[in-house]
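Q: Please design a sequence for this.
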């Protein structure tokens, strides 16, 4: 896989860098390796946009795989860290990065329920917000878990979601 780092993923609560958003540029087939000069020869098999000198390669990552839901083995809370497109609000069919990965027992196909409470129109203070009921406003399906983050797709949404939105992984769901 040919890729280019795009921008860092920052946890909106802690400010800690969690990883990088990368652009997948295409696929190559390695045709030769020069151990002495540490060079690789390759043939580009598929490209989605221009590939430049300095772009990086890694082992092939998923390509057009169907990911179906699997039962969640653990319960835990998570957050949306960032959207793949870098917009302020996301909805159905958008890709998102969440702050849990395989180290936290997240697997491909796990689903997180997007939970929200608030007024929807007015800003309310935290003490009032804590008394309001939780609402389920969407669902995120994990496509690929990494060490401490995962790539997911919003498969259902009733309203927009922002970075920092709370997600709940419910055991048995």
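A: Design:
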């Amino acid at each position: 896989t040919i890729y280019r780092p795009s921008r860092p993923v920052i946890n909106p609560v802690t400010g800690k860098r969690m990883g990088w958003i990368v652009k997948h540029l295409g696929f190559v087939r390695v045709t030769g390796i020069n151990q002495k000069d540490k060079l690789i020869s390759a043939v580009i098999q598929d490209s989605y946009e221009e590939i430049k000198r300095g772009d990086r390669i890694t082992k092939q990552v998923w390509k057009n795989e169907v990911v179906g839901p699997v039962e969640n083995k653990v319960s835990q809370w998570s957050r949306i860290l960032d959207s793949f497109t870098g917009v302020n609000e996301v909805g159905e069919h958008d890709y998102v990065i969440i702050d849990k990965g395989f180290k936290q027992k997240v697997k491909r196909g796990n689903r997180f329920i997007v939970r929200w409470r608030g007024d929807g129109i007015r800003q309310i203070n935290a003490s009032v917000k804590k008394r309001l009921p939780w609402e389920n406003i969407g669902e995120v399906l994990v496509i690929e878990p990494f060490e401490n983050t995962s790539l997911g797709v919003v498969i259902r949404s009733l309203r927009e979601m922002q970075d920092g939105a709370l997600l709940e992984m419910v055991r048995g769901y």
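Q: Thanks. Anything notable?
A: The first helix runs from residue 126 to 129. The chain has a mean pLDDT of 89.
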